[in-house]
Amino acid sequence: LTLLSLTNPLLRSLNLTLSAVALAMVVRQRPQASAGLVYLTHVLGLAAIASVIDLRSPNLSTQLWAAVLLAGALLEWSFTLAPRWPVWQRSAWYLGLVLAALSYTLFGSLWLIEASPEGRFWLLVPAAMTGLATRRQWPYSRQASWLSTLALVVVQPLTLGFATPRLMGLGVATVLMLVNTYRLQHLAAAILTVGFSLGLASAVIWQGFATQLTVPIALNLLAIATLILWVIHDIGRRQTSPLAKLYAQASNGWAIALSITNLLILTGYDVSLYNAFDDRSVGYTIAIALTTLAIGYRISQQASNLGFYGLAWGIELLVVRLLWSPGVSLAPTLVERLAIANLALGFTAQLASDGWVRRRQQPYLVSWHVIPVVYACLALIGAHTTFTATTGLYSLGAALIGIGVGRQQARPALTYLSIVGVSIAAYELLIYQLMQAKGGNAGDGIILLAALAAVIAIGDRLLSRWLAPYLRLNPPQIHAIAHLHWILSSGLMLLALFNSLSFTGELLWVGITAVLTLYALLEGRGSEPWTYTGIAMGLLALGYLFSLWLPDATLLAWGAAIASVIAFVMYMVPWQHGGWSLEPWQQSATWLPGAIAVATAGGVNLQSLLIVAAFYAWVAKTRNQTRLSYLSILLADWAILRFFSDRAIEEPLWYAAVLGGSLLYVAQVDPALRSPTEREKRHWLRSLAVGLICLTAIYQSETSLAIALGTLGFSIALILVGLAVQIRAFLYIGTASFMIQVLRQVWLLIDNYSLLLWALLIVLGLALIWVAATFEARRSQVSALLQYWLTELDEWE
């Protein structure tokens, strides 16, 4: 029936009214009626009333409908005061909330279309809720207090557009929140109460002094409000009442928010000064001072990281304001003043934190580590906008602040970084002076930079006993810093070699490299890698010194020989008496002459090669390392080949003799070939060496009768040597070479004298007949002789 009557206002009103009455009679006849039936009856009754109003006034405005809904909500809540019907009481409470929400929606839609002050009437909703919440034994008091709090928040936009409604809204909200906070005993309610009171105070000031109010005055008022809030906090936290403590916490939170807001606005204004804004009212300075004073007062109550951050922030802004003068642009002088001031603040903050900890026996707060570092960073940024003679001093000051903070933390990371800052500061001072110099050589400047790194490295190393306890680092950590500077200095010294140097710069290069060498060698008493490094640096310095004293040609020719002398001295000095291990010195001495010989291969002379070969022969004998003598053989071969080249000797026999002789030496002395099981390898290596010489001689004998006779003589000599020293390779290769050479000569004779072939064949036939006859006659003796020689040959090399 309701659905059928919706389109006709009269039928709809009659239907809803009769339905509500019918349901009311049913509910009355059922003492235990369900909540759903009660809610349905209540809703139909409200719908019937709304339908009747619409029937009588179909053109009722939105504003009046909002008022009707508001009145309906208040009327519904008045029914909740009758405790006889608890179900009706509950439905009246919740349906009143629905009507209040609908009225707020209509007031809000009116405000969005055109700002209207009628929204202030909705303040009756939170007022009614607060009134209900104060009723004793009312079942929804706490819920009403929270909903009243929410209503006070959402109603404010409806009142802000007009002066009187705005004051009314904030005033009512402040009063009602005092009641709600008392009832709820909750921090959120206390925060809103303080917030509404601050809003009311702001609205009153704006209403009374809008024409005289300026930005500086507003900022000062914010600072004063912050101070008052912290005074309230101080008073409240001393009370025993829970409500007082809640208001103390709320006041503290709002004071923090206001102070941060004030600092942000003042920071933005100070930043605008850098863009040459001309407004430099003293009011801003007073506002900064008052805000900083308020933060200081809060810290005196209870120290906290946030408080110290705010205090440091305010002091920085105050310093900027005091240093800035009207008409002054961002000039170097101003930048320097700001840098000096920030360094002073950094040192002051660091020393003050140390004093605070000593006096109160408290651990360091994180802010005490952060604030000095921030001040130091600000000083660095300001000081490095330009590069002047004092830039390095600012870096030094910032690094000292970092060292002080690093000591507080007892953590090496910041201390390491600050020590690097000290080095950077020293380099900035030196680089500025170098930039002022005109002319000169680039390498000289690099050497001076390297010298500075060397001085820092040596200073750190020598003073580590005193620096370690001050910096709260252990000696190895200090040594690591010194080593890093040594590495930097060494790298710069090497870089200097690739740049032009004056004569003085060259002498400085040698001297500084000698100092770096001494540093490395002293460190090498307990570390072989440092010893190797020091030896390398020392040899580099010595080589560079020789290059200054000796002509290039002389140095190339005799460099290997000089290196042999130096290596001999290095090898013979008893370094173990000085605390060094002998191994690095002897190893370096062993490889030095060979390396220099290879490096100077294009100009080394025969004498140097032979001296180096003799040195390696001596080392091989001294250390009993046979294979080390191979270097002597290679160098000797190199010298012989150089001699052949100088004398234009091109006969292959000489080169074959050099190679064969070297292989024979290897076969004779190599430890791996001395084993009895390696006899076959020795035999084949000797055969290869001697065969190479003999084949080359046979090949070359074609060119000269003297060489042919010499080849025969050499073959006979090999046979005799083989028999004498019992080495089969010499006997076999000598015999084969002799036979080949004899046959070759016979062939040449036959080729030239054909009748000689018949004579030779007759002689050969007679010899074969004689051999056959002898063998038949003395078979047993010949067999015994052959067996004897075969046995003997098995025992030979």
| Cα radius of gyration in angstroms | 55 Å
DSSP strand count = 0
Q: Structural class, from helix and strand content?
A: mainly alpha
Biggest sheet architecture: none
Question: Low-confidence segments, ≥5 residues, pLDDT <50?
Answer: none
In whole angstroms, how far apart are the ends?
134 Å
Oligomer, anyone?
Answer: single chain
The rough form would be described as: elongated
Amount of helix: over 70%
Mean of all residue-level pLDDT scores: 82
Task: Tally the helices.
Answer: 32
How much β-strand is present in the residues? under 5%
Question: Can you characterise this structure?
Answer:
- The chain is mainly α and 797 residues long.
- The chain is 81% helix and 0% strand.
- It contains 32 helices and no strands.
- Helix 4 packs parallel to helix 6 and helix 18 runs antiparallel to helix 20.
- The chain is elongated and about 165 Å long.
- The termini are far apart.
- The mean pLDDT is 82.
